[in-house]
Write the C-alpha cells for this entry.
Amino acid sequence: MIITRKTGIASVLAFQVILVLHWMQGKNGLENKLVQNFHENVQQNGNRDYSSNTSTNKNQLNSRPTLARVDIAFAIAGFNQCGAMQLAETTNNLPQVFFGNDNNSNKASVRNDRHIENGNIDEFELNYRRRKGKDISRSAINSFKASNLLRSDSTLKTFAQYFPNTDLVVVIRHPILHFQSEYSFFYRNLEKKRVDLSPSSIDMSTSASNFLRKCRADMKSCPLIMHFHHWLARLALTPSESQEELALLGQHQLSQHKDWKGRLLLMQYEQLVDDNSTRRHAMERTYENFIKVTPHSYNSTSSPNLIDKKEHLFDICHTNHTKFRYDMIQDTEKAAAWIRDYLLKSGRVVIPNKDHFLNMLDTFSSDPCIVTMKQLAKTDGRLNSKIRDDLKGITRDSIREDSGLVDFAIGGFAKCGTTTLMKVTGATPQVYMGNINGKPAEVHDIRKGYIDKFEDRYKDHRSYFSDDGNRLFNGFKSPEILQSQDFLVNMLNLLPSIDLIISTRHPVLHFQSAYNYKYRFVNRTEHRLPEPIDLIGFCSHDCHHNCTPSVKNLNVCTGNSYFHYGLSRLRLTALESDNEMELLDHHRLSTHPSWSGRLFLIEIGQISDTNSSRRDVWERDYEHFLGIDPNSFNISNQKRNARHDKIIDICDEAHRPVREVLLRAGSMASKWIREYLLGSERVVVANMEHFLALIEKWRYDPCET
C-alpha cells in the first residue's frame, strides 16, 4: 500500500488521538483505584494519625489522587556543615536503605525538602514508588535527608502530620566551628555569582557580629548560626515548663510539634570522624540498631570526610573575631546545658557513646581556638609531649627574639606594684614604655582590639637609638594581661615571643588593697558599697567561663587573687598530673602553649624590701632579664605613694569568711608555684630564697601573725 506524505501525517495524528482517549479512560480508572487504596490504608493503619490534616487530604482528593502512604523509617534531619551529608552518603550505600532516588542522596534531599515544605506529599512519595528493581514492601527501609527539617516551620509541621512515627537522626557540632563552615559556604556561593568578597569590600568580623545579633533577634530568619537547642526544642521532647529551662531556651518563639512521636538519635560530628576505633565502632553499632539494618553493615569510614575540605574564606580563630567568639559562647553554653539537663532525660532520645558525647558537649562552653585545662585533662598526652619537645632548648639564658616592635610587658595583677615598676623601668635611658603625653601609662588598646593604635605608640621609636648606639627596649604595662581573655589572646597573636614581668602578693592583702582602691572613687552617699562576703567568686569583667556578676562593674572579687590560675595560662608547666590539676581546681581558663617568651616572677615584698643588699641583687637580676645596662635601675628612686584611709580592714572578724577563701587560694598557689612553676627553665626569680619565704606566708592569715 502506498501512503502519501499528507495521508501519512493524518494517520499518525489520528493514531495519537486514539492513544490519548485510551489513556484518559485508564487514568480515570486508576484514579478510582488509588482513592480506594488510600481509604483502605487509613483503615488498616489505625496507628497513623491522619486526622490532624483532614482538610488537606480532602482538598488533595478533590484535586488529584492521593497515593497510598509510604513508610519512612527514619530521616537524617540536620544540620548543614555538620556531617549530615557524609552520614547520608554512607547510609545510602547500605542495600537495605533507600533514599527515594537512584544513588544521589543529596539530590533527593533537595527534592524532599521542597516537596515536604510545600506539602506535596504525593510527589514526595513518587520518588519511592518509581524505583526500579527494588522491593517496595515493608521490609525495605525508606529514608530521606532533609537539612532544613528542623529550621523550616512548614516542613516540620508537614513531617509531624504525615510521618508522626518516623525516627530522626540529627548531627550537631561546636557552634563556633559550625558557624565558620556555614559562613564560608554561604559566601563561597556568592563568589560563584561574581560578588566582590575582597577584604576591602566586606568586613568579616562585622558581618559575623551582625549575623549573631540577627539570629538572637529573629530565630526564624537566621541564615547561618545554629542555636541547636532552639531547633531541637521544637520536637517537644522536654516539658519546656520550668523557668530554668525557658531561660536556657531564651524564650524563643519557634513552634513546637507534639504530633511527632518518633525517637531521636543525637550525635556530634566528631563521633563520625572519631580516631578512636573502639568508640567509633560502638557508635556504628548503635546507629545500625537505631535504623534497624544488619549489624556490622555500616562503616562510617567508607565515605570521605566532606566537611571543611575547602579553604575557609575567613579564619574564625583570628584575633579580630575574639569578641565575637565569646559572645557566641554565651549562647552555646546554654545549648549544652539544655541538652545535658533536659533533652537527654527524655526516654525517646538515643545517644551513642554517651560519656564521649558529654565530654564533647562540655567543649561548647570553651573557645575551640584555644586549649583549656579541662580539654588537656582528656588528652592522651601527645599534645603535652609535643609541647615539651618544641620547648626544649629554650632556657633563661636564651637570646630573646626581637619582635621588631615590643620586647616585654609588665603584667601581673592590679595592686601588686606594677605601676611602680612601670615608672622606674620607664625612667631608665634604654627603655621606652609607649608613653602617652610624654609619660608611661597603662595600655588597654590590645584588649579592645585597637592594634593599629597600639602599634602607633612605638613606630616612631623603633629606629631610635640611645647615645651609645643601642636600640631602645620597648615595653608596656597592663595588669589585665593574665585576667582578660581578649587581652591575652590578642597580645600573643601579635607578640608571641614577648617577655613578661609578673608581680604577685599575699591574696588576703591583695583583696583588701583592690577593694579599698576601687571603691575609694565611688560616691558612698549615693551608692551602697558591696559587702566583701558578697564578692566571693569570680568577676564578670572580660571573663567568659564560670563567672559571677561583678558589682557596679568595678571588677572586685576574690577570684582576682587566684594568681596560680593566671600564671598557669602561660603553659610553663605540663598541666597533666592529677596533683597539679587539683591545685589549679581544674579551672577552665584558656592556656596558651604558643607563647615562647620568658617570665620574670616577683612577689611585691621584693620591690619594697628594706634589706638593701638583697634589693641590690634583685635589681641587678631584673636589669639582666631586660638586657639593660647594670646599675641603671633603682627602685628606691620611686617615691612612695601616700597612704589612704581604709574603707575596710580585712582583719575585722566580719571578713573572716573572705580570708578563709583567700587563704585556701594562697596555699594552693604557693604550693603550685614552688612545686611546678619554678621547675620551668623559662622562669626567672631573683633572690630565690627570699621569694620562697614570701610566698610561704600566703598559707597563713596575715591578721594572726
Summary: Residues 457 and 555 are 27 Å apart (CA to CA). The chain has two domains: 74-369, 386-704.
